[in-house]
Amino acid sequence: MKWAKSLFKLSDDVAKVSQEVIQLTKSKFGHTFINHGEEMTNFLINRAKGSGMAQGQFLDDQVAAKFIMDNLDKLNNGAIPLPIPKNFPARMILPDGSYGIPSKIRLVPGGKGVKTAYPEF
User: In sequence order, what are the beta bridge partners of 119?
Assistant: First the structure.
């Protein structure tokens, strides 16, 4: 019976974690994670190289989604750059393929959330 108690505890822990996962919907986050998400490294390397402009990338989509949701109330007057929190999982991909450290996250309002959000210098 001790194993059953452990199983219920594990089940409760899994349920708690799954409740905390933010759904990365297009209606709430626009093309943020399609263009600047953690899985977009190769796309952003090519985009930076082709455009000659640095590209921002979030390295943890859930952390970025929480930051965006926590700051939606600041978008009343249009797009804004916000200071990036210390140790925030994001980077800039430079045209030569190297990486830089962003200083801001730009939020662009749209619909029921943002049209896009991305790290920038």
Answer: 105
CA 109 – CA 65 distance, rounded (Å) = 14
Tokens of residue 81, six digits: 């750059």
Structure tokens at 80: 């804004």
Q: What is the pTM of this model?
A: 0.82
Cβ atoms of 110 and 96 within 8 Å: the answer is no
What pLDDT, in 10s, does the model give residues 51-76?
999 999 999 999 999 999 999 999 99
For the CA atoms of 106, 109, 110, 116, what is the dihedral angle to 10 degrees?
0
